[in-house]
Amino acid sequence: MTSASWLKDQPIAHRGYHDLNQKVWENTLSAFSRAIEAGFAIECDLHYASDGVPVVFHDEDLERLCNLKGDVRERTSQELGLIAIGGTSDKIPTLKKMLDLVKGQVPLVIELKGREADDTGFVETVLEVLEGYEGKVALMSFDHWLLRDLKELNAPYPLGLTAGGIQPEELAMHEKAMALGLDFISYYYADLPNPFITAEREKGTVIITWTVHDEEGRKQTFENADQMTFEGFDPRVSV
After folding, report:
1. Which pTM value belongs to this model?
2. pLDDT, tens digit (0-9, with 9 covering 90-100), for 189-221
3. Using DSSP, how many helices (H) and how many strands (E) does the chain show?
4. Does residue 37 belong to any structural domain of this protein?
């Protein structure tokens, strides 16, 4: 297994250190620059543009973040790179542009957003773009088929399951994913504690949480996990 212990070291800024999309919007180069300045690790999301290029964006469609209709995956990375996010000067960046900005200054926790039967080449291309990058990187996903692909390709990074839920059938599904040999888990903080996470912690699996917005969430995280993914406050000060 690949060591994920560095994920414990610093708070992880959810979609970068944005200000809840007031002036600095999520998953933008501005949000990533702000995280670097503050010394926070960066969590971000990847989708697969129509020209086979990974782009940094959370939603499947453009409406919430760009006030446009349409599927992200039906646009090329060049087209997406011309679209303003939230009416700001920030455009939708490619993974490569984000890596060129961060340059290993802070760790990256990258979530792959899959679409079953439409992900051919996605994982391979992400690994190609990351090849030679000098900095800490972890890859994670809700989507078991992407995690399986990453394992089959011997991805040289800590690999994690993004998950939540407390129902027995949900926990059983998570256990099945962990049987792939994953290195860490990113879990919804309000669903802790639960038997699945308790058992994984006993095995030594690194647990981070998503997405903490306040002191209560921070407290719940550090009672049940190793580090938090946060947004909407500065974890360097009490809230």
Report:
1. 0.97
2. 999 999 999 999 999 999 999 999 999 999 999
3. 9, 9
4. yes
